[in-house]
Request: fold
Amino acid sequence: MSEEKNPMATIYIMGKAYKVPNTLTIMKAIEYAGYRFIRSCGCRGGFCGSCTTFYRVKNDYKLYVDLACQKRVEDEMYIVQLPFMPAEKPKWDIDKMKPTTDEVIRVFPEIARCLSCNVCTEACPQDIEVMRAIQALRRGDLEDVVNLTFDCISCGACSIRCPAEITHYQVFQLARRLHGKYETIPAKHLMERVKEIEKGNFDDKMSKLMDMNVEKLKQLYKKREIEK
Amino acid sequence: MKKTEIIEGYLGYMRESIEAVEKTRAKRLKETFPLMSLEEREKILKKFHPDYKEEAKRPAKVGPNKGDLMPHEVADLLEAYPLAKPKDIDLSKVDFDVDILIIGGGGAGMTAALWANYTGANAETILIVQKLRLGDSNSIMSQGGVQAADKPNDGPGLHYLDVMGGGHFTNDKKLARRLVSDAPMLIKWHEDLGVIYDKESDGTMVTIHGGGTCRKRMHSARDYTGLEIVRSLKDEVLNKNISVLEFTSAVELLTDEQKQVAGAVLYNMETQEYYVAKAKSTILTTGGFGRLHIQGFPTTNHYGATADGIILAYRVGAKLRDLDAVQYHPTGAAYPEQIVGLLVTEKVRGLGAQPVNKNGEQFVYPREPRDVEASAIIRECYKRNNGIETPTGMKGVWLDSPMIEILQGEGTIAKKLPAMLRQYKRFDIDMTQDPILVFPTLHFQNGGVIVKENAETTVQGLFAAGEVTGGTHGKNRLMGNSILDYSVFGRIAGINAAKYAKKAKIGKLTLNHVTKYKKMLKEAGIETDRKAPILLPEYRGEKVLSRTLEIF
Reply:
């Protein structure tokens, strides 16, 4: 790739200027510049939340947040990454809890300090309505919290910006587990199948399949009916 | 329309091809390209699947699999020298003395840790070491779902047939049986943990087809299935106070005089300090080799997928299998450049999107087993020349995602594929309106360390689970069986490692196997600077690398 074919952008990695091809993501640009990641790089596909990156661009006072693996560089971009979100993980025993707001507030009393400033929502690289989810929780609507925060990748951008010092991603994790465990109906067909297998209902059939030679197995395979 | 102008994410010449796709859509909604016969499958694989390129493989020169064909990239690492010199490691000072050491903190590792704990191993006697952060793994990236035969029209027998057929009947039958028989139990376990699977209002699981399935048995959590499971496992591992060392890798296993595995030499990736971890049982849950970029393919895999587990296991004498079988996921993103190689989940096809060529024609059944589907796409692009070329010179075919909205109702993509929708929106492509461009991408290590049904390897004291192992899937894994694999065998590894630890007696720690391995390499005439495991891939710019000085 020659430089003429691919225009270059100047980016500032923690203040130092580097010229990088402007088609790269922030992550690849940092590597192009010569850095080797140990932290702030995980799945490289937008799912793990380890490459949270804060940046500003020239002539713009705003502080932006995105995932380094999913955001293309821009010219005159000032970049710093968040390698770790400083927060204790409170422990809980999900089996002994109830799906209520009170339970969540007992673990995270700081939820009550929410100022409704919406900085959390603006910081979210997944476009989650973070503040709305906190409000839904305060209302006691766990299902709403689940739907609003299902795409949360726990990158911590909201939490590092929050003036009330809430660690939203941990709050939402507890809310989702409470909802999943207590407010959704267990699948009846699943429970029944587990029991059938435990009772050994399929043992004979499975043993027969195991003893079959490959040719016979292939015949059976070909004859399978594909569910419409 | 200018050929090089970008209109809603696509260049002008791509838009022309999209118009052809739109023209044939109404007709294609009514007809699906037929399934291949087993004979046709065999033929297309031999001709077009990258695994069948002879020049891409060579026989291993040393070790338990001497003579077996494997990709050069894997053979290079087996035929590489250890990172640490045994004489530099002081084994008399033990830093961590635990019952169970788990190497790798993805889905398999965390599942193993939890089940070891349920089996009676105290949390403080279990140690998980993880190269990245806990949970940062391929497990967290899996989107489409997990298979389990739990519907009335289904059963473990049918699931077994699908697994065996997908693997071209090369699978370890006992492992395959265990996989399908334990599947419902593990989904139930997830449900009890609070994992939120997609359900009807009465609790019935929403299940769909994957490639090579005869029943709709793919369970999902939108298209964040891996994320939803992994974050729940992670939460539980931390709640149980199981010890975790992050940004720490294992660079060598330890053995004792009885040649049983007795822990590992660990390496703090940040301070570069080594630690000696002594363990009564050791579980390898290191995942696969996507980041080796076999045959130069891009990959869907996470940053740490560098085959460390097979290297460590091989040096203590564990036998491997099927490493010549690489899974290329049929649909990786081929455009835009920023996301090339990233996964376009099979669920997109499961919900009705068809792969079509530049003229808008179908050329393959949308849900063949992965290797067959991938081969058909390669043939369409490179033999029949019906692919669409991207500005970087890559080729791809269209995956007609707007069909989903027509077949399943408007808003389906937003509801069932939010991650995919978001990924493309970031680059101005609206997949509800326009098709997306795809090409096969390196996805999964089908083979790996040989294990028995109880997750034991061929070396005493060493257990393994998940992608690092081989046999369960034979030469080709089906969609939805990897989460299942790490769940079923992670559980079994955890239970059996805990039981084993109760009676194991570890003698004096040694690295004799490493000295022996080095000798073996020398005797085989292998002279090289290569060192393994590589721990992380090298992506720094070439210009920078050519000018680096190692001063401190």
The mean pLDDT of chain A is 95. The CA atoms of residues 133 and 145 of chain A lie 5 Å apart.
